[in-house]
């Protein structure tokens, strides 16, 4: 996968525009009806920052462990912990675990909470999904772009059930890129 800086930044901006349009006007929008149409408060994002886009190897676990993740509705989901991405945020080394759904799909789920969770961003954390066809590079590395961090559906509507971020991905550093908390905040973090 090879993109120019303008390509990937334009793709993020286009994705944000499409998401906002869908949330504002679609009958299938996850936001409650009272927050749609003219009442839609919009979505909030940090500015895109190239310093939070990493091309890194996934350090694979020798024996991937299946873990149970609690959900926002007191349920459970299972994932396979497949490895970690080791990056540096500002000057702080950070290790973020990656998980595969146990449903057989090959995407990677990279959830995290950080020092902005509960103040500037959704308190339960944010997610990044990595698709092998888009984010796995020919040299074996992955493009882990924290600018693509998004809120789970339960951030917009408590009727949705979302997996909670495993404690190993609770980061002490602020990740000041990606999606901020929903301006139509109606939940208690």
TrEMBL record:
Annotated protein name in UniProt: DUF1684 family protein
Chain residue ranges for the region called Disordered: 1-35
PANTHER family given in the database record: DUF1684 DOMAIN-CONTAINING PROTEIN
UniProt biased composition (Basic and acidic residues): 16-27
Domain of life: Archaea
InterPro entries: DUF1684 (IPR012467)
């Amino acid at each position: 996968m090879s993109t120019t800086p303008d390509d990937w930044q334009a793709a993020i901006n286009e994705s944000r525009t499409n998401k906002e349009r869908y949330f504002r006007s679609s009958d299938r929008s996850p936001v409650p009806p009272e927050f749609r149409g003219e009442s839609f408060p919009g979505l909030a994002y940090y500015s895109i920052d190239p310093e939070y886009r990493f091309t890194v190897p996934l350090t694979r676990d020798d024996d991937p462990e299946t873990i149970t993740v609690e959900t926002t509705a007191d349920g459970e989901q299972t994932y396979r912990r497949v490895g970690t991405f080791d990056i540096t945020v500002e000057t702080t080394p950070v290790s973020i675990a990656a998980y595969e759904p146990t449903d057989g799909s090959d995407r990677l789920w990279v959830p995290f909470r950080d020092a902005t969770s509960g103040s500037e961003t959704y308190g339960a954390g944010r997610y990044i999904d990595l698709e092998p066809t888009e984010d796995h590079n020919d040299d074996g590395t992955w493009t882990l772009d924290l600018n693509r961090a998004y809120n789970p559906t339960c951030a917009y509507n408590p009727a949705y059930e979302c997996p909670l971020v495993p404690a190993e991905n609770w980061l002490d550093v602020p990740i000041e890129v990606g999606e901020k908390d929903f301006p139509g905040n109606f939940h208690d973090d």
